[in-house]
Write a structure and sequence with these properties.
Helix content is 26%, strand content 21%. By secondary structure, it is of the alpha+beta class. A five-stranded antiparallel beta sheet has the order 1-2-3-5-4, with helices on one face. The structure holds adenosine monophosphate.
Length: 108
C-alpha cells in the first residue's frame, strides 16, 4: 500500500513543503517535536537506511544538512538533531525512507 509520503510526493496529499527538486522533497512534520521540525524524503522509494542506495542516501544527507542550516538560521537557534528511524523496533512508523531535522528550541 502507498505510504502517506508517497501521496505527498505525488501531490495526492497536502504538506507544508519547504523544498523540492527532482530527487527529494522536504516538508514540515505534522506533529512537530520542536518548532521547525521537518522531514526530508527521497522520491525514489526505499523502506529505510537498511536498503536505500548509497548514492541516494548521500544526496539525502547533503540536502538535509543544507536545509537544516537554513532553518536554524531562520529560527535563530544554534543546533539541530538529525534522526533516522529504521524499522518499527526503532520507532519507524512511515515505511518510506526519511530524515528528521529537529531544530533546537530557543534557550536550550
Ligand atoms: P517515523 O517515526 O520516523 O516513521 O516518523 C514519521 C513522521 O512522519 C512522524 O514524525 C509523523 O508526525 C510524520 N508524519 C506522518 N504523517 C505526516 C503528514 N501527512 N505530513 C507530515 N508529517 C507526517
Amino acid at each position: 500500500m502507498e505510504t502517506i509520503f508517497q501521496q505527498i510526493i505525488d501531490k495526492k496529499a497536502d504538506a507544508k513543503i519547504l523544498f523540492e527538486n527532482k530527487r527529494v522533497i522536504a516538508f514540515y512534520d505534522i506533529n512537530p517535536k520542536a518548532p521547525g521540525h521537518f522531514l526530508v524524503v527521497p522520491k525514489v522509494y526505499s523502506r529505510n537506511f537498511k536498503t536505500i542506495k548509497e548514492k541516494d542516501m548521500l544526496y539525502l544527507i547533503k540536502i538535509a544538512r543544507k536545509l537544516a542550516l537554513k532553518e536554524i538560521k531562520k529560527l535563530n537557534v544554534d543546533g539541530f538533531r538529525l534522526i533516522v528511524n529504521n524499522e518499527a523496533s526503532a520507532k519507524q512508523v512511515v515505511f518510506h525512507t526519511h530524515v528528521h531535522i529537529i531544530p533546537s528550541e530557543k534557550g536550550m
